[in-house]
Amino acid sequence: MHTRTLLISGFVALAALLSASPKSESANDAPAAFARLKTLVGEWEANMPDGKAHLTYELTGGGTVLVERESEDKMPSMMTVYHLDGDRLILTHYCMTGNQPRMQARAINLQTGEIQFQFLDATNLANPNAVHMHNVRLRLVDNNHLDADWQLYENAAPKETESAHYTRVR
């Protein structure tokens, strides 16, 4: 009877492993996710309700830092910097609101190209209730398409999400 219980327990554990989600917080996925982000180098464009949004990506720091510059018709420009910090993938967003939230990749799915960043902290944040970007979901659809969902927080709760579907122009 004991052997049968062990065998059933083994099958249950194996089934759980096989059905596990491909999402990961593994440190091993951060370098691979950063390598995927580096393929964004170039120029991108999206149609937004108020006009066109433009992204440019460039590498600096000997290829260790990816700089994203964002401009949109009728809005101040912004910048986001992506880099590895040991085994973590980090971003710092230099926002038009005057604060600089830092986020860490907490869910990485290399199969779908999705990277979900969550708030760590921020500089120049007047208080925890002040308006700031809090979470970002990027999805590298293919070599020429990128989806981005930026979640804005106010009063310690989600206020709105700005979504864009970018197409590579160069």
Radius of gyration: 19 Å
CATH superfamily: Calycin beta-barrel core domain
For the sheet with most strands, the description reads: 10 strands, antiparallel, barrel
Share of residues in strands:
over 45%
What count of structural domains?
Answer: 1
Order of helices and strands: HHEEEEEEEEEE
Low-pLDDT stretches: 1-25
CATH topology name: Lipocalin
Helical element count? 2
Shape: globular
Calculate the mean pLDDT score and round it: 87
- Widest beta sheet: strand line-up: 1-2-3-4-5-6-7-8-9-10
Secondary structure elements and their pairing?
Layout: H1 2-18, H2 29-38, E1 42-48, E2 51-60, E3 65-72, E4 75-85, E5 88-94, E6 100-109, E7 114-123, E8 132-142, E9 145-154, E10 157-168
Antiparallel strand pairs: 1-2, 1-10, 2-3, 3-4, 4-5, 5-6, 6-7, 7-8, 8-9, 9-10
Describe it:
This protein is globular. Strands 1-2-3-4-5-6-7-8-9-10 form a ten-stranded antiparallel barrel. Strand 6 (100-109) and strand 7 form a beta hairpin. 16% of the residues lie in helices and 56% in strands. The protein has 170 residues and is of the alpha+beta class. The protein has a single domain (23-168), classed as Calycin beta-barrel core domain (Lipocalin).
Search tags:
170 residues; 10-stranded antiparallel beta barrel; single chain; alpha+beta
